[in-house]
Each structure stands twice: as structure tokens, then as C-alpha cells.
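User: Here's a structure from my thesis project, written as C-alpha cells. My advisor, Dr. K., wants to see whether a designed sequence matches the one we expressed. Can you design one independently, without my sequence as a hint?
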């Protein structure tokens, strides 16, 4: 399901008050999902080489300094090596505490960092924030309904839920 991070489905915060709303909404959902548990925090970047610098400016290393490279997914179907991409996922495990990823969440809200997710250690519950909201994937319909119903005012009014 998808939650919007600002009233009226506004995509980008324009003031410190709006940043506070965005970070609070992210944290409220994250608390509902992960309070008292360990989580994986995952960030990513990509490059045209397996070990080269990121292919775009990113604050990932500064905002996620304790992460380790978890996985590299290489796309090399094109015969021209210049068009090969290597997506690298970085992860750490930590105890969920409200505010422990606020720097990452604020960077996501600004779209200066993309492809972040927070998941339980069994990967049965995933929170994927993006600029404008967050997608949440839960293992059961009952879990989904419980979280959805508690935060119904943050859902999209679009019939498809976007």
C-alpha cells in the first residue's frame, strides 16, 4: 500500500514545518511496523563499472556510513560495455528507534537519495520511502489492513491507490 508524506498528496516539502510532517509520517509508519525489533536499512547506488564511483552525486556514504556492500546486480546485456550498469545495495542491521534514519528520510524527501528501504530481518515487511510518500509491503492481508486503517488519512484518494 502507498502512504503520502504530505497533506493533499503534495510531493516535496517546502518549509521546515513540512519537513517535520514528512519525517513524522515516515517514522509513525516505521514505528507501527518495527517498534522493538531489529531492521535492515538498505541503500543503493549504481555505476558503469562494478567498483567505480556512483554514476550520480549521492550522499549515500555520508548518510549510511556503517553499511556494507550486500549485493551487486550487474546488467550487461548490451554488447557495448559503456551501457553496462552495476546496481550496488548496501545494508546494515540495527535496532529500530524512532529517528534512527531521519537523515536518510530527509534525503529521500528531497530526492537526493533514492532506493532506500527498511525491512524486518526476515524480509517479510518492507518500507520503501520515496519523494512524496512510502510504499509498504506486508506479509499478510490482516497486517496490511491494520496499518492501512490506522493511517487511512494518509492514503491516496486515487482509485488505484497511487
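Assistant: Designed independently from the structure alone:
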Amino acid at each position: 500500500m502507498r502512504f503520502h508524506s504530505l497533506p493533499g498528496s503534495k510531493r516535496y516539502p517546502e518549509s521546515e514545518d513540512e519537513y517535520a510532517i514528512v519525517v513524522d509520517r515516515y517514522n509513525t509508519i516505521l514505528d507501527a511496523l518495527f517498534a522493538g525489533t531489529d531492521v535492515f536499512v538498505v541503500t543503493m547506488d549504481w555505476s558503469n563499472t562494478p567498483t567505480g564511483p556512483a554514476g550520480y552525486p549521492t550522499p549515500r556514504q555520508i548518510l549510511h556510513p556503517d553499511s556494507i556492500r550486500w549485493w551487486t546486480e550487474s546488467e550487461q546485456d548490451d554488447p557495448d560495455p559503456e551501457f553496462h550498469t552495476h546496481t550496488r545495495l548496501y545494508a546494515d542491521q540495527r535496532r529500530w528507534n524512532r529517528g534512527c534514519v531521519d537523515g536518510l528520510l530527509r534525503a529521500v524527501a528531497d530526492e537526493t537519495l533514492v532506493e532506500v528501504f527498511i525491512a524486518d530481518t526476515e524480509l517479510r515487511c518492507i518500507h520503501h520511502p520515496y519523494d512524496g510518500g512510502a510504499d509498504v509491503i506486508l506479509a499478510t492481508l490482516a497486517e496490511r489492513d491494520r496499518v492501512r486503517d490506522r493511517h487511512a488519512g494518509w492514503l491516496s484518494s486515487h482509485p488505484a491507490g497511487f
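When you compare it with your expressed construct, this may help: The radius of gyration is 17 Å.
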